[in-house]
């Protein structure tokens, strides 16, 4: 039986610094895509981001490089990440399932949950997703890899769920796919044109992805 996963300094050193996962130009392009998509659908500049499962808060710097006045809030259950970077990067301790009840003084323009859901149990995913519609009134970037994908990265604790499982759960939470891991919140979904939203593909496609 696998040992419980610990998101300590050794973990982040191994995957984020030595392996370079979700760093550099790859991260910059992801952030730019998420910001542009959110602003296109909101029809205004991005004002706030909630980063769920943020780790060390690596999204914060490229977000602020694009939108210096942005309000960024990161949530993670890693004691190491929050203790080390919490004050400087506005990171706070929370489990994904806490989002069922956790609320703030605003609904966020962009909700980021990158490389997180495929490591969580079914019940916790459903609990957390049930709060997404209240937390995000813009666009969600939900980078998630599935059984159909060829995964190159951290496979410890990886849950090989089919893409259809996630589509069902995201739709149940009120979110509508608009491509490239991006989902419109219920507030924006009804305003989207027919070809701005993405219907499930009739044929599964395999794509190499890095998970951390």
Can you walk me through this structure?
The protein is 34% helix and 17% strand. With 212 residues, it is of the alpha/beta class. The protein has a single domain (20-190), classed as Rossmann fold (3-Layer(aba) Sandwich), CATH 3.40.50.150. Strand 1, helix 3 (60-66) and strand 2 form a beta-alpha-beta unit. The relative contact order is 0.15. Mean pLDDT is 89; it is low at 201-212.
Spell out the blueprint of helices and strands:
Blueprint: H1 9-18, H2 24-42, E1 48-52, H3 60-66, E2 71-76, H4 79-89, E3 91-93, E4 108-112, H5 122-129, H6 132-135, E5 136-141, E6 150-151, H7 163-172, E7 176-179, E8 182-184, H8 186-189, E9 208-209
Parallel strand pairs: 1-2, 1-4, 2-3, 4-5, 6-9
Antiparallel strand pairs: 5-8, 7-8
Task: Kindly summarize this structure in a few lines.
Residues 50-136 form the Methyltransferase type domain. The chain has 212 residues and is an alpha/beta fold.
Overview features:
methyltransferase, seven-stranded mixed sheet, methyltransferase activity, Methyltransf_12, disordered C terminus, single chain, globular, Rossmann fold, alpha/beta, Methyltransferase family protein, 212 residues, two-stranded parallel ribbon, 8 helices
